[in-house]
Write a structure and sequence with these properties.
The complex is a heterotrimer of chains A (about 900), B (about 110) and C (about 110). Chain A is α+β, with helices and mostly antiparallel strands and about 900 residues long. Chain A has four domains: about 80 residues, no CATH class; about 200 residues, no CATH class; about 180 residues, no CATH class; about 190 residues, no CATH class. Chain A is built from 27 helices and 21 strands. In chain A, helix 1 runs antiparallel to helix 2. Chain B is an alpha+beta fold and about 110 residues long. Chain B has a three-stranded antiparallel sheet with strand order 1-3-2. In chain B, helix 1 crosses helix 2 and helix 1 packs across helix 4. Chain C has about 110 residues and is mainly alpha-helical. Chain C contains five helices and three strands; from the N terminus they run αβααββαα. In chain C, strands 1-3-2 form a three-stranded antiparallel sheet. The longest helix of chain C is centred in the last third of the chain and has 18 residues. Classes of the chains: A alpha+beta (about 900), B alpha+beta (about 110), C mainly alpha (about 110). Chains in contact: A-C, B-C. Chains A and C meet through helix 2 and helix 3 of A and helix 2 and helix 3 of C.
């Protein structure tokens, strides 16, 4: 029985889940689901959904009341105080609803304003909860710690096996990211993979859901190669078939390290298990997990510095103890491996912090911003309520005179607010529910958000309830205080300015000032983020992405086992691409800037001196790549077709590496020794710096090595510069690749412009989100100023009339009212800017080359807000000038 | 006029339930209703002994309960005979026949 | 235990359960009641009635294993106890005695 739930029903289920006792919730939901389904069939999903919502709201409270020992059989015994109270509340509610019916405009405005703000808050909170607050799905996650190596040198497998043997404060396990090409299932494809040490599943504490975890012998050399596949891959590629255990899949390391002979070899792996569905130890989904093989004879064991260490603290041990122990372990082990010093200076970071740390500031700042939006909406509603309550002073005064206590009247107002808040909450959840599926796909990829994790669950519901309570306090209590405080004198009617009115005025002005202050904060934040975003789009990345298309090929087939075949493949493709009309340049690279990150190698200028060992980023390229990307040659010569096997080994360096190694010398002609390939190569040229990993990050030292002299980099990205439209050119390149070999997976085909664009998705997202918040804040703030001034003018019609009668010019009246508004605006701006000065530092981690105190942004935000506020004050001020003195005096 | 239903012969409840279910799956009260029908109202089984018996027999693996549709199209728990139950019914029948034969012999002994 | 008589809703819940074979979880009871009475019934009332009757020994319950389907949830299955049948019989007799002899009044 699978039931389709509409949005209402989903909200209702969440409510039941969070309001019914734990042990009973499952039964309650199961039963309500079934009745819902019967009703849906009979009456349609909307009627059934509304029914469900109604039941959901009463179910928990009724159970609770029942548990509170109401008489077992309903009878006419003394009604409990709860029941009397409920009756009173019901009467209040009926009265309130009647009032709202009479003023649909007011009610609609309040519910819509609050509802939208609640929806925005629910959505952002759902994201924050899904991405940051949800504990990682491993037992006792607080005992998991990352070990981040200090310095530049990365950790090797040998370091791991030495260190983990000696460490007592935690059981360590090692990871390495792998990109694999996979074959032996339905289609050849590239997949993301992890290689892990065999104790991985014990340390993380989550065994595979099907099959077995790795055993120690899986990590011994010479054993049958085994692999675990992801739950997702199991479902989509194997149809969830349990007989997948024992199947053979062929894995190729497609991001192989070109220096290592034999690194590119397809190996049949036996599937021994299936990973849990939410297995994302590094924050992203992986398709295949293989054991790290501990083979001291393999170069990879000692040379590949690519491992991440994770540890589970021993009972009673602390992160600090682990760090201290690592220092002493590093001291005890002879410095055979350079990466041991990276252990000595390693940092130990809580697992959750490491996974979500980078995205946390942005999310919390966003949550704070959306909270400000809610506050502004509350302030607006409070002023509306206040104005309305002021208009009802006669009614309330009458009720007071008839003996209603002040508490009773306050309760009436609170009841009204509760109903409005409940309506706003329901509307907000409804909107949030509708928007959530559309929000998740546009979230910046850096959040690693999955649609399963981001949902309107009971946590979000609690948050919304909390937000509504806050709403209740601000929109209900303040007006209640403002109005009932002055009641006894108010029966005389509104004509005589009473203490109550003055009190209301003061409250209203306070509200407007705070509203403006909050709006300034949001506007400034938005301004800073937008300016930073514009800066980012203006960055010179060192290459020119316009008119460049790229296609990444992963020839992960046994047919390309031979290095020369692979080189020939790329050569063929490039030759044919260059023959296309209007192609200006074409080349290939194994890690495309911006899109692919980058690998590193260790090298030295003096192999005899172990101290001299250094590391740098490197990329394998073909001639033509630099022309295609528009990267300038600063010195020496570019790569040529003659730099092939058998010729002298050559390479290029970028400016950053050249300046680091030979600050005062000519780098051209210098020689470097690759420790992992154990060969010298000669620097023949210096290239301009390129922002390889991100537009916002400064360039780092890089070496470029010719493909023709490298062991294979299995995946290569073909880069083509042509003025043809990118879509056409991209298709033409794909056609050529497939004409050379129809079996090759093209794992990415994209215009370089689009890749750069996508890489700044996060700043763009936050910039536009904040702008949206700021616009909402501006509009609400403007409405607030308008409302308050209109109210003040209405209250002072008499006084203005007298002034006009006494000869005040209309100009004077207008400027007087504007000055009044100006004082409020100035106060609000002042407070807001001061608060922003204090708070804007929280934004600095999101800003690129913009100071968090950027004076232009501050002035601009303040200016815009002042103008908007004063313009909205104009209409009431003009109305004041239009008061007919005769009418107002006759009124006396 | 129907005779007043009498209680079952002790020890025969399991067999009668198994026999009733061997014809078709039924819900709890359906079983007792069918037994009354078949015996022309002679035997009735009270819910107080029926449900404990059903739960016990489900535990023995002789019958299996599952949620099906009632006359009114509602989800109700229906019981059916399992393979083990069918075997059990055969044994009970044999025992009963033997017992009956023995008793008859005693009663007819002169 | 089980001294008090059954409330009206409790009687109705029990009768619906008997229509369902004497064993049921709350959703079919609600639907059965709605169909036979033609009125809406709040699941919470049925839920509370069942819980109270269980405390008084008129029904017993077990939490059933979730059905072995994705998204299956465990439900509490209630069984009518003999005491309840007795109480229902008493309630029916009481009512019938009250109705006795009134037929002429109700004859159309």
């Amino acid at each position: 029985m699978s039931i389709r739930f509409g949005i209402l029903a989903r909200a209702a289920r969440a409510i039941v889940g969070s309001t019914v006792w734990d042990s009973e919730a499952e039964d309650a939901v199961a039963n309500l689901d079934e009745i819902y389904e019967a009703r849906r069939r009979a009456h349609g999903s909307i009627a059934a959904g509304l029914w469900y919502l109604g039941q959901a709201l009463t179910f928990g409270p009724r159970l609770w009341l029942d548990r509170r020992g109401r008489p077992a059989v309903k009878d006419t015994r003394d009604r409990s105080r709860v029941a009397t109270w409920l009756d009173g509340a019901r009467a209040d509610a009926r009265f309130a609803v009647r009032g709202f019916r009479k003023t649909p405009g007011f009610t609609g405005a309040v519910v819509a304003t609050l509802g939208l703000a609640v929806a925005a808050n629910a959505l952002i909170f759902a994201v924050v909860r899904g991405v940051v607050l949800r504990p990682p799905p491993f037992p006792e996650p607080e005992r998991l710690a990352w070990v981040w190596p200090g310095g530049e040198l990365a950790l090797t497998h040998r370091t791991f096996s030495d260190v983990s043997r000696l460490t007592r404060a935690a059981e360590l396990t090692a990871f390495a990211s792998r990109a694999y090409a996979i074959q032996g299932i339905d289609r050849p494809d590239e997949v993301t993979g992890l290689a892990v040490s065999t104790n991985h599943f014990r340390v993380l504490g989550r065994p595979p859901v099907v099959g077995r975890a790795f055993r120690a012998e899986d990590g011994q050399p010479g054993r049958e190669a085994v692999a675990l596949i992801s739950f997702d891959a199991w479902q989509t590629r194997f149809g969830g078939d349990p007989s997948v255990i024992g199947r053979r899949i062929e894995l190729f390391t497609s991001a192989a390290i070109p220096m290592l002979p034999g690194a590119f070899t397809g190996t049949p792996h036996s599937v021994v298990g299936v990973l849990p569905p939410d297995y994302r130890p590094l924050g992203y989904a992986v398709d295949v997990v293989t054991p790290l093989v501990e083979d001291p004879a393999d170069d990879a064991f000692t040379q590949l510095g690519e491992l991440l260490f994770l540890g589970r603290l021993a009972p009673g041990a602390s992160f600090e103890q682990l760090r201290a122990e690592l220092v002493s372990v590093a001291d005890r082990i002879p410095q055979l491996e350079p990466s041991m010093e990276a252990i000595g200076s390693a940092r130990v970071v809580a697992f959750q912090d490491a996974v979500t740390g980078p995205v946390r500031p942005a999310l919390f700042v966003t949550l704070a911003a959306v909270g400000l939006v809610l506050l502004i909406a509350c302030a607006n509603v409070a002023s509306l309520m206040l104005a309305r309550a002021q208009g009802r002073r006669n009614e309330l005064g009458l009720r007071a005179a008839l003996g209603a206590s002040r508490g009773r009247l306050a309760r009436q107002l609170l009841t009204e607010c509760s109903i409005l808040a409940a309506g706003a909450g329901a509307l907000g959840l409804l909107i949030a529910g509708l928007l959530l599926p559309r929000l998740v796909p546009v979230l910046p990829p850096a959040l690693g958000a999955s649609s399963e994790a981001i949902a309107l669950d009971s946590g979000v519901l609690l948050f919304v309830i909390g937000a509504l309570l806050l709403t209740l306090v601000t929109t209900g209590l303040i007006p209640a205080h403002g109005v009932t405080g002055g009641l006894p004198g108010s029966l005389g009617g509104r004509r005589r300015g009473t203490g109550g009115t003055r009190r209301t005025n003061r409250a209203l002005q306070t509200i407007v000032v705070s509203e403006l202050a909050l709006a300034v904060m949001l506007a400034t934040g938005a301004g800073l983020l937008l300016k930073s975003f514009v800066r980012l789009t203006d960055v010179d990345a060192g290459f020119s992405p316009r008119d460049v298309v790229t296609a990444r090929i992963a020839p992960s087939d046994l047919r390309y086992a031979d290095a020369e075949l692979r080189r020939a493949l790329v050569r063929d493709v490039l030759d044919r691409v260059r023959a296309l009309p209007r192609v200006e340049a074409a080349g290939a690279i194994h890690f495309l800037p911006i899109a692919d990150g980058g690998p590193g190698i260790n090298f030295t200028t003096n192999p005899a001196d172990p101290e001299n060992r250094q590391s740098t980023g490197y990329r394998v390229v073909t001639p033509g790549y630099f022309d295609a990307m528009g990267i300038p040659l600063l010195a020496g010569r570019p790569l040529r077709d003659t730099d092939h096997q058998g010729a002298e080994l050559v390479g290029l360096v970028n400016r950053a590496l050249a300046e680091r190694l030979w600050p005062d010398e000519d780098p051209v002609g210098k020689r470097l020794y690759r420790t992992s390939g154990q060969a010298w190569f000669t620097v023949v040229g210096v290239m301009g710096d390129v922002r390889q990993s991100a537009v916002g990050l400064p360039p780092s030292p890089e070496a470029y090595l010719p493909l023709a002299q490298s062991e294979w980099a299995s995946a290569m990205t073909v880069v083509v510069r042509s003025p043809e439209p990118a879509v056409d050119m991209g298709r033409a390149v794909e056609d050529i690749i497939w004409s050379v070999d129809p079996q090759i997976p093209i794992t990415r085909s994209a215009a370089m412009d689009d890749l750069v664009h996508a890489s700044i998705a996060s700043p763009r997202f936050y910039g536009f989100l904040f702008s949206a918040f700021a616009v909402v804040a501006l509009v609400l703030g403007a409405i607030g100023v308008y409302g308050v001034l209109a109210f003040v003018v209405r209250q002072r019609v008499d006084e203005i009339g007298v002034r006009i009668a006494l000869g005040a010019t209309r100009r004077r009246i207008v400027s007087r009212e504007l000055a009044r508004a100006g004082r409020l605006v100035a106060l609000g701006l002042g407070i807001g800017l001061a608060a922003t000065l204090l708070a804007s530092r929280t934004l600095s981690s999101l800003l690129y080359e913009v100071s968090a105190l950027d004076p232009i942004v501050f002035a601009g935000a303040g200016g815009v807000l002042a103008v908007v506020a004063l313009v909205s004050a104009l209409a009431p001020a003009r109305r004041a000038a239009g008061v007919d003195p005769l009418v107002s005096i006759r009124g006396h | 006029m129907k005779p007043r239903p009498t209680d079952l012969v002790p020890g025969t409840l399991d067999m009668l339930i198994l026999k009733t279910l061997s014809l078709q799956p039924l819900h709890g009260l359906g079983i007792s209703r069918r037994m009354e029908q078949v015996t022309g109202g002679t035997f009735a089984v009270k819910p107080g002994s029926l449900f404990p018996a059903l739960h016990r027999m489900e535990g023995e693996g002789w019958i299996a309960g599952s949620w099906g549709k009632s006359e009114n199209n509602r989800r109700a728990k229906f019981y059916e005979l399992t393979k083990a139950g069918r075997r059990r019914l055969g044994e009970e029948k044999r025992n009963w026949a033997q017992a009956l034969e023995a008793i008859t012999q005693i009663l007819e002994a002169t | 235990m089980a001294r008090e008589s059954l409330g009206e809703l409790e009687q109705r819940v029990l009768l619906a359960m008997l229509h369902l074979g004497g064993e049921a979880y709350s959703a079919p009871i609600v639907l059965e009641l709605e169909q036979r009475s033609g009125r809406q019934v709040a699941p919470a009332s049925v839920y509370i009635a069942l819980r109270r009757m269980e405390k008084r020994g008129f029904v017993s319950s077990v939490l059933e294993e979730p059905e072995r389907k994705i998204g299956g949830r465990g439900k509490r299955v209630f069984t009518v106890m003999p005491g309840a049948i007795e109480k229902l019989r008493v309630a029916r007799r009481e009512l019938e005695r009250l109705w006795d002899g009134l037929d002429p009044v109700f004859a159309a």
